[in-house]
Amino acid sequence: MGKLTGFNVALAGLSQGKHSMEFHLGKQFFVDMESSDIQDADLDARLEIDFSHGVYALSFDIAGSVTLICDRCLGPLQWPVDTVYSLTVKYGDERDDSADGVLVLPQSEPSLDIAPILYETVELEIPLKHIHDEGACDSAMTDMLERHSAALPDGDDPVDPRWNELKKLTDNN
Fold this sequence. Notes:
173 residues; alpha+beta; five-stranded mixed beta sheet; two-stranded antiparallel sheet; elongated
């Protein structure tokens, strides 16, 4: 994961007031973060920092799309991402991220690596099941799945004979 550059924000060097930065998250970002879900990405991330009285209010705004693999047809699935995330950062004696939305950095860390924050924010926008809308799956793969899937037994409908043999085992007990 150490291949990323350009995502360290030098908080200690910022002057009081508002600051903004922009980042582009593409395929290489997710390869470097070792993501197994995201195959490609075209995301724009904007970071707004409001520094006042030793407290950094960070606001992340991420928009674009990622390419996933459909769990049903294994085809590419475009998934829109449009999310915001806020985080308060301040300096203290040691690193502490136990409070929701608050990060305490030790004085020895003059900068914050925001790559993991960006990555996790995007990952949380991805559903557990990656499935195209009904009818949008790859038709060749859908046809193949239908040809090779077994019909579920429905009353007196014919059943694969292997199931009958297995059923005999449970009937004897």
